[in-house]
């Protein structure tokens, strides 16, 4: 691929570490981990084992990092073409493709080994399935060929709560799958608001993101639709499933109202990139706070406090 074969040495050891760290796209990983942690807290009814939590989150971090490095390898032609991404480690020549591939394999093997040895085989297998789905289904098959790329591809980002639940219980039931659906439906508003912001970049490299192919108006209508869809699923955890209570309910309702308002504002002004940016940033905060609400509600302290304030 043009421009990607030009080698450029890192200045020192710290620069090497920084380059490999950047390959993992570290800003993406915390959001994946908090969905894993929330699932673990619900599964353990607020009493998650500290060692199990640390190992599961470490294994999840390594799996996500492996997937992102593989993505950087596969998309290096796109990264080199776009001005915004041209300084990433592979297109800039700071890391050679074969070295990045070895790094990704090591990360994946460490993830599977840690989870299989210290957690269980189901959690390890689910983490690996996330890597496979992200690379084969999203990056290879969907991303460059359909406007529905991030809708179907969103399943990869929805796997972490399955890993977290399996880590605690050794199996899967309706609750982790509901968490999967919540993240799956949340992904289009999150990612399409970003796509609206950088539409021209995607058009430049011929990636068929929805705003590029169908335009802003269709995109914001789809964002509005998925925002409406995700809200009732967040409340199913309260009723009829009953795994969470009034504290989570109050947090979820507040977050959902703001989410709806921001999506509606964008729907009224499809070409306003500042509104798209506002929705994108809020969507990250939304998922982090929603998961935090799940954790808080699952704690025994919260149950005791609610019982004191609202006696039967």
From TrEMBL:
GO terms for cellular component: plasma membrane. Its EC number is 2.5.1.141. It is a multi-pass membrane protein. One of its GO terms (biological process) is heme O biosynthetic process. One of its GO terms (molecular function) is protoheme IX farnesyltransferase activity. CDD domains: PT_UbiA_Cox10. The chain crosses the membrane at residues 28-44, 50-74, 95-115, 121-138, 150-168, 174-198, 284-306. The keyword Transferase applies. The keyword Transmembrane applies. It catalyses: heme b + (2E,6E)-farnesyl diphosphate + H2O = Fe(II)-heme o + diphosphate. Keywords: Cell inner membrane, Cell membrane, Heme biosynthesis, Membrane, Transferase, Transmembrane, Transmembrane helix. PROSITE patterns: UBIA (PS00943). InterPro entries: Protohaem_IX_farnesylTrfase (IPR006369), UbiA_prenyltransferase (IPR000537), UbiA_prenylTrfase_CS (IPR030470), UbiA_sf (IPR044878). It is found in: Cell inner membrane; Cell membrane. Carbon 2 of the heme B porphyrin ring is defined according to the Fischer nomenclature. Converts heme B (protoheme IX) to heme O by substitution of the vinyl group on carbon 2 of heme B porphyrin ring with a hydroxyethyl farnesyl side group. PANTHER family: 4-HYDROXYBENZOATE SOLANESYLTRANSFERASE (PTHR43448:SF7), PROTOHEME IX FARNESYLTRANSFERASE, MITOCHONDRIAL (PTHR43448). Belongs to the UbiA prenyltransferase family. Protoheme IX farnesyltransferase subfamily. This is Protoheme IX farnesyltransferase. It comes from Stanieria cyanosphaera (strain ATCC 29371 / PCC 7437). The gene is ctaB.
């Amino acid at each position: 691929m043009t421009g990607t074969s030009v080698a450029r040495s890192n200045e020192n050891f710290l620069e090497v570490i920084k380059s490999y760290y950047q390959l993992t796209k570290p800003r993406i990983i915390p959001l994946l981990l908090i969905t894993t942690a929330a699932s673990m807290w619900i599964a353990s009814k607020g009493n998650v084992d500290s060692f199990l939590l640390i190992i599961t989150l470490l294994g999840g971090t390594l799996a996500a990092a492996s997937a992102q490095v593989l993505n950087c390898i596969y998309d290096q032609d796109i990264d080199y073409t776009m001005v915004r991404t041209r300084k990433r480690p592979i297109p800039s020549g700071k890391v050679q493709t074969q070295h990045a591939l070895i790094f990704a394999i090591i990360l994946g093997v460490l993830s599977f080994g840690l989870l299989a040895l210290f957690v269980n085989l189901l959690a390890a297998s689910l983490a690996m399935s996330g890597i496979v789905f992200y690379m084969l289904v999203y990056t290879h098959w969907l991303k460059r060929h359909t406007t529905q790329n991030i809708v179907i591809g969103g399943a990869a980002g929805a796997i972490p709560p399955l890993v977290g639940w399996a880590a605690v219980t050794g199996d899967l039931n309706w609750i982790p799958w509901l968490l999967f659906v919540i993240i799956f439906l949340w992904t289009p508003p999150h990612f399409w608001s970003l796509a609206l912001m950088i539409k021209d970049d995607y058009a430049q490299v011929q990636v068929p993101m929805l705003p590029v192919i169908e335009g802003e108006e269709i995109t914001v209508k789809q964002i509005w639709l998925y925002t409406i869809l995700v809200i009732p699923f967040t409340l199913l955890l309260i009723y009829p499933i009953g795994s969470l209570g009034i504290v989570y309910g109050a947090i979820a309702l507040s977050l959902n109202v703001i989410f709806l308002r921001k999506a509606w504002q964008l729907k009224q002004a499809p070409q306003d990139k500042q509104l798209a940016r506002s929705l994108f940033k809020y969507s990250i905060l939304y998922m982090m706070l929603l998961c935090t609400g799940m954790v808080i509600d699952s704690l025994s302290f919260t149950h005791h406090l609610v019982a004191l304030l609202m006696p039967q």
